[in-house]
Specification:
Order of helices and strands of chain B: HHHHEHEHHEHEHHEHEHHHEH
Radius of gyration of chain B: 24 Å
Distance between the termini of chain B: 60 Å
Helix content of chain B: 55-70%
Largest sheet of chain A: 4 strands, antiparallel
Largest sheet of chain B: 5 strands, parallel
Structural class of chain A: alpha+beta
CATH topology of the largest domain in chain A: Ribulose 1,5 Bisphosphate Carboxylase/Oxygenase
Number of strands of chain A: 6
Strand content of chain A: 25-35%
Structural class of chain B: alpha/beta
Number of helices of chain B: 15
Helix content of chain A: 10-25%
Order of helices and strands of chain A: HEEHEEEEH
CATH architecture of the largest domain in chain A: 2-Layer Sandwich
CATH class of the largest domain in chain A: Alpha Beta
Oligomer: heterodimer
Number of domains of chain A: 2
Shape of chain B: globular
Strand order of the largest sheet of chain B: 2-3-4-1-5
């Protein structure tokens, strides 16, 4: 199941050129762009791991793109997103956030029903991937099998 | 003007004619070059080299248009020269010129020294250097007194780490930023000897000559005019004498010495007007008199 999150979520994945143009837009607005990644893609998980600090005082997208590439190289099998933080008083929040990498296989989500008081039911979502330990969640099956063989 | 057609076998391309003058008008390069001529006194070899670089970039763009090989040229530069010869000023102009030529995308200048690049403890240097490089992307990174990066007396110095990261980015991201190193001539020479990687990655070594007395006078008058002052004829004479005397003294730093002298003369002029208790005319407010300059320590001996 293709995860859709953040701005541009219903567009096809952006190319590097398009990502670069979006970063240019963010920098023109004076926002600080940060790279974040996670392998726990629950929609309510707002706390992703930060790939370094958000980048302040940048003038050109090339610097951010270098970090995006470095993050993809280190974590090829997880979700990576860009966040653009607006520090203007009154906003002080993330103004734009979009995915720049997704794993090759996205197993999707399971609907969980929990019986509560009376006959009421509480619904929850959990990604199939989080059944596996951190670090192995979105690796392809072959990669996981190969890892299992090694002592 | 047209580019001569390439060798046989490229007939299709040779038919195309590129108007270099029109291309030049497009890139709006004439204005900054004229500014350079107007605002910078002397420095003939430097201006010549900048003109060459501008022409080269223009031709590179024309070549690209007719489909000839046009790899990004290496534009990293090293400015060497004595203090006060205008290295920083030219670097600042360079950012603007390269921007108008379309070679750097943003045209800002990030000016750093060793402290901004090299960390204090292990593991501190790489993030610091990378951070500076990221800020400079799309513009010009100006490293003043670059030879301090290399401390031969200390093998464990973190400067070497910064140098390696710099070299890597200078090589791999040539289209993203231009690095300009600056420093005094002799120390830069020994810096390049101990870091041959730098020497080979820098295409343009530009030497800034010292100014002679007449150029220094022109600088003084230009600086005065820029801040709405002018030298009275007697003050001009005094300035000429001041320059010849100052040049003989140690720690003479060309344009910078002149600027400082002028700043002090402005202080004395203010004091003179204030003490004189006269009604200050517009004329008096903008004129620096001979006595303002002759009060200098330089005339004491």
């Amino acid at each position: 199941m293709r995860v859709t999150q953040g701005t541009f979520s219903f567009l096809p994945d952006l190319t590097d050129r398009q990502i670069s143009d979006q970063i240019e837009y963010c920098l023109r607005q004076g926002w600080a762009v940060g790279v974040e990644f996670t392998d726990d893609i629950h929609p309510r998980n707002t706390y992703w791991e930060m790939w370094g600090l958000p980048m302040f005082d940048l003038r050109d997208a090339a610097g951010v793109m270098a970090e995006v590439r470095a993050c993809r190289e280190t974590h090829p099998d997880v979700y990576v997103r860009l966040t653009a933080f607006d520090s203007t008083r009154g906003w002080e929040t993330v103004r734009l956030s979009f995915l720049v990498q997704r794993p090759a296989e996205e197993p999707g989500f399971r609907l969980e029903r929990t019986e509560a008081e009376g006959r009421s039911i509480r619904y929850g979502l959990s990604a199939y991937a989080i059944d596996r330990p951190v670090g192995e969640r979105y690796k392809s099956k072959q990669a996981n099998a190969a890892q299992g063989d090694s002592p | 003007m047209s580019i001569p057609g390439p060798a046989a076998g490229f007939e299709a391309a040779s038919a195309e004619v590129i108007d270099l003058k029109a291309l030049q008008a497009d890139s709006d390069i004439a204005a900054p070059m004229a500014e350079l001529d107007r605002d910078l006194v002397g420095l003939a070899p430097v201006k010549q080299r900048i003109r060459e670089i501008a022409a080269f970039l223009l031709v590179a763009r024309a070549r690209e248009r007719v489909g000839l090989a046009a790899g990004p040229p290496t534009l990293h530069m090293a400015f060497t020269g004595n203090p006060g010869t205008g290295k920083t000023t030219v670097a600042l102009r360079m950012a603007g010129i390269l921007h108008r030529l379309g070679y750097v995308r943003k045209g800002h200048l990030v000016s750093v020294t060793r402290d901004d690049l090299v960390g204090q403890y292990i593991g501190h240097t790489a993030p610091k250097t990378k951070d500076v490089l990221k800020r400079a992307m799309g513009g010009v990174l100006f490293i003043d007194e670059a030879y301090y990066l290399h401390r031969p007396e200390n093998e464990k110095d973190y400067g070497q780490e910064a140098i390696e990261i710099l070299l890597q980015v200078m090589e791999n991201q040539r289209e993203d930023l231009v690095v300009i190193l600056a420093g005094y001539r002799d120390r830069m020479a020994s810096f390049f000897v101990s870091n041959p990687g730098f020497r080979s990655r820098i295409a343009h070594h530009i030497d800034f000559p010292d100014y002679d007395a007449s150029e220094l006078l022109a600088i003084a008058e230009l600086l005065a005019a820029q801040s709405d002052y002018r030298l009275s004829p007697a003050a001009r004479e005094a300035m000429i004498e001041y320059i010849t005397r100052r040049q003989q003294q140690p720690s003479f730093s060309n344009g910078r010495s002149i600027r400082n002298a002028l700043d002090r003369a402005r202080l004395r002029q203010a004091m003179r007007l204030y003490a004189g208790n006269a009604v200050a005319t517009r004329e008096a407010l903008q004129t620096i008199e001979a006595e303002d300059i002759r009060a200098s320590r330089v005339f004491a001996t």
